[in-house]
Amino acid sequence: MPLRIKVAGKTDKGLVRPGNEDYLHLDPDNHVYAVCDGMGGHQAGEVASMLAGETLRNSFNVFQKELIEAPELDIGRILPPSSEVLLKAIRLANRAIYTMAASDSAKSGMGTTVVATVFEADIATIAHVGDSRAYRLDKTMLVPLTRDHSWIEEFQEAQGISREEASSFVGKNVITRALGVRENVEVDYRIIKVNPGDVFLLCSDGLCGFADDDEIYEVARRSRDNIEKMTEDLVQMANDRGGADNVTVIALEILEVKESPLPDIKVATLPAESAQVLAVEDTWVEKLRLAGAEKEESGSPDVTGSGSHKSYLFGIFFVFVILAALIIYFTQFR
Predict the structure, then answer these.
(1) Would you give the DSSP letter of residue 229?
(2) Which long-range contacts (CB under 8 A, 24 or more apart) does 260-263 make?
(3) What is the pLDDT of residue 334?
């Protein structure tokens, strides 16, 4: 029995921001999905989130086998192949963003959060850096699968205060981890079993920063049987709250799984890379950059992102087809 997943995703710039620094990554062929929330100002933040998405795409579509067989990028633990590639790709995304920011003063300080999942057999690996989140939609509640890397989350845990008490604190939106802001990165991850009928949500803080888990659950619950509508309703809720931030939501419904002996793994942290691994990552960053450049030159369609660029190219192609048909018609029949 093959693994089958239904996916719906939507990203929106909101009602206040001039552009969209979020990036929506959908790769159904490899069952890889991610939400990236860029920071550093329009253009820089947009570049950072897009670069993270492109690194995931090329890691799984071009270099998957090589990454699995790359001992020099060893993560120091035994994981399923897809999990290993995901964690290595996130590390490489951090290095790629950091390197680009260091070489271009206009992009200095740029970075992005990431929450990503890859499905294999009957497991889901969830990895994240920052405050974009993953949830499982149960019958009675929304179950958080990630813990924000934010100042307020760490303060709450240290001081034992409630989320309601912390909500009024100044600086509550300051994140403590992001891709691209340091030369290496710590990545939190976990592996969970999945079953047919399970529904998962990934989102940027444009949603979870303006609605609590119970509110998100109520909107998602009403559209459980229609995940396309679920993503639209959740984005609409964020905009109804003022649309002060970009918002991105992915909904995933598990249709079929292939049973396996692969176990759950509780939340763990992949430690920051050593200097030796960073040196190897630099060569990989260049390989990924060249793969991206070759893709642009070949004009291969992009299956990730918000879809606007893909739609634009299709529109141009459609116009050329119509013009060609008209030329042939008038040549033959006039």
Answers:
(1) H
(2) 260/121, 260/122, 260/123, 262/80, 262/120, 262/121, 262/122, 262/123, 262/191, 263/191
(3) 40
Distance (Å, whole) CA 180 – CA 200: 27
Contact 142, 216 (CB under 8 A): yes
Backbone angles phi, psi at 21, to 5 degrees: -95, 0
**Which residues, at least 6 apart from 312, have a Cβ–Cβ distance to it below 8 Å?**
none
DSSP H or E segment with residue 99 = helix 81-103
- Look up residue 302 and give its amino acid: D
Return the pLDDT at 308.
Answer: 36
pLDDT reported for residue 168: 58
Distance CA 254, CA 199 (A): 6
Helices and strands per DSSP (H, E), number in the chain: 10, 11
Helical segments of 104-189, H only: 151-159, 163-166
Top-tier CATH class for 4-303: alpha beta
**Tokens 């001081």, located at residue:** 159
Q: In this structure, what token pair is assigned to residue 289? A: 């950059």
Domain spans of the chain, in order of start: 4-303, 306-334
Strand partners, 23: 36
Going from the first residue of the chain to its last (334 residues), give the mean pLDDT of each consecutive group of 10, the final group possibly shorter.
94 96 98 97 90 98 96 94 98 97 92 98 98 97 96 69 59 84 97 98 96 96 97 98 97 97 96 97 95 72 42 34 39 41
**Would you say 219 and 237 are in contact if contact means Cβ atoms under 8 Å apart?**
yes
Q: What is the pTM of this model?
A: 0.86
